[in-house]
Each structure stands twice: as structure tokens, then as C-alpha cells.
């Protein structure tokens, strides 16, 4: 197993070209920038972006895909982490952009972040990216909605991400942990074992799935993330996947 993981890590390093591993202290300092909103900073404590990206293996200079980015909290984190030699695709479908104030929030991100490009294709249909062009992809707290609504669309989602990744590229999938047999669609959750089965069916390889970085033992998976008691700080899993 150690040999297998070493080979995966070596391949991923080659995929990143001349990229350099992120400097955790440098990224932490960048996220403390006064230009970054207080609302964004308030999410850092529970989301632990520096620790998560270090665990997943993000590197400076990478070409990154933020899938179903919403208002772009992770997009800005990624933008600062990969630096001026890196690039971030901020993916949102046209429908997602039309919801609430998303388009205005996305426009503000794009105006402030010079290494970010908006991608409007639907990930469950066609990303519109060249095959093998992405070093690192991430989706944060989104996959459950796609899967619970349409498992077939979720499989297309995963295959499209795999196709966009370079050989050895990394895909981080983060979601609210659910319980098998529960009404996970209503709870906006998904059991880890369902996701594992889906990613394996899509041909992605699991590098690691046992991180406790985002574990919240006090969350018993019986409430939706929006419940006042949780304050959106749910028990979450991180899947580190590769092509």
C-alpha cells in the first residue's frame, strides 16, 4: 500500500510540472488580508482551508478547478494559494449563477482575482475543458445535491471531472456525512460509502478517505446543515481521489 501511495504521489508531482507545495504560513497570511471579507474569514475556522488543501496536495502554480463554486469562497482561497503563476477555473452553471445574488458575488470575485476564470458549463453535462488540462479539482459540500437528485447525473459529473484531470491529478471531494437509510435528500447529506461506490464506478482512484480534519463528533447526522444547533459546522468527510 505504501508503495502504491508513493507512486501516486510521484505521478501527481509530475502532473504539477514545476509547481511548489503550498507554504501553509504564507497562505494563512494571505487569508488574513484585510481585503478579504469578514464573512469569508468567519468560515475559515470550521472549513480549515489551509489544512485541507495541504492534506489534498495542492501546489503553487497549479491549474485548478473549483466545481459548483457558488459565491466563490473556495475560489478565492485557491486563487491565493496557487499564486500568480497558477490558474483557477470557477465553475458555476447558468442556473446556479441566476440564483439569489450569486452572479453579483461571482462578478466581485472575478474583479478582484486576476488568476480566476469563470466557467459556465454544467459539470453534469459537459465541462467544456480540454481533456487532461487540470492539475487539481475540488468540490465542497455540493456532491450530495447532485447525487440525491439524479444518481446518473452524479456519475456524469464524476466522469467529466476525471476526464479533465491530468494523469495523477488530484480531486478533493468534501461533503456532509450522512447515514445509510436516512432521508439524506432532505437532510442535504450523503453516506461516505455511497460516494466511494460512485467514484470507483467512475474510474477514479481513492488515495485517502480517512482524514479526520473535518470530523465533528457532536453532529449525529440527523439534522440538516442549516439547523441552528449546527451552525453549518457539520461532520464532513474528505475523499482524496486521483486519475
Provide the low-confidence segments as ranges. Answer: 1-18
The CATH architecture term is 3-Layer(aba) Sandwich
Q: Identify the CATH homologous superfamily.
A: Vaccinia Virus protein VP39
CATH top level label: Alpha Beta
What does the radius of gyration come to? 17 Å
**Which whole number gives the mean pLDDT?**
92
Characteristic key phrases:
243 residues; alpha/beta; Rossmann fold; 7-stranded mixed β-sheet; two-stranded antiparallel ribbon; 19% strand; globular; disordered N terminus
Question: What would your notes on this structure say?
Answer:
This protein is an alpha/beta fold. It has one domain (2-242): Rossmann fold (3-Layer(aba) Sandwich), CATH 3.40.50. 41% of the residues lie in helices and 19% in strands. Strand 3, helix 6 and strand 4 (87-91) form a beta-alpha-beta unit. Helix 9 (143-149) packs across helix 10 (151-164). It is globular and about 45 Å long. The two termini are 17 Å apart.
Amino acid at each position: 500500500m505504501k508503495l502504491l501511495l508513493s507512486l501516486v504521489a510521484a505521478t501527481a508531482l509530475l502532473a504539477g510540472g514545476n509547481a511548489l507545495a503550498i507554504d501553509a504560513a504564507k497562505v494563512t497570511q494571505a487569508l488574513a488580508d484585510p481585503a478579504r471579507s469578514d464573512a469569508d474569514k468567519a468560515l475559515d475556522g470550521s472549513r480549515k482551508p489551509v489544512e485541507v488543501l495541504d492534506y489534498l496536495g495542492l501546489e503553487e502554480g497549479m491549474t485548478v478547478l473549483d466545481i459548483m463554486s457558488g459565491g466563490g469562497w473556495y475560489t478565492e482561497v485557491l486563487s491565493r494559494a496557487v499564486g500568480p503563476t497558477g490558474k483557477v477555473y470557477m465553475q458555476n452553471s447558468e442556473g446556479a449563477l441566476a440564483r439569489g445574488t450569486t452572479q453579483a458575488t461571482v462578478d466581485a470575485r472575478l474583479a478582484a482575482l486576476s488568476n480566476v476564470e469563470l466557467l459556465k458549463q454544467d459539470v453534469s453535462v459537459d465541462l467544456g475543458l480540454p481533456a487532461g488540462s487540470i492539475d487539481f479539482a475540488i468540490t465542497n459540500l455540493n456532491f450530495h445535491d447532485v447525487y440525491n437528485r439524479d444518481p446518473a447525473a452524479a456519475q456524469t459529473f464524476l466522469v467529466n471531472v476525471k476526464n479533465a484531470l491530468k494523469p495523477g491529478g488530484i480531486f478533493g471531494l468534501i461533503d456532509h456525512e450522512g447515514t445509510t437509510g436516512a432521508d439524506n435528500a432532505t437532510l442535504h447529506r450523503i453516506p461516505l460509502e455511497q460516494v466511494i461506490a460512485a467514484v470507483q464506478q467512475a474510474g477514479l482512484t481513492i488515495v485517502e478517505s480517512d482524514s479526520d480534519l473535518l470530523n465533528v463528533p457532536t453532529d449525529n447526522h440527523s439534522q440538516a446543515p442549516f439547523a441552528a444547533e449546527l451552525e453549518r459546522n457539520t461532520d464532513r468527510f474528505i475523499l482524496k481521489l486521483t486519475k
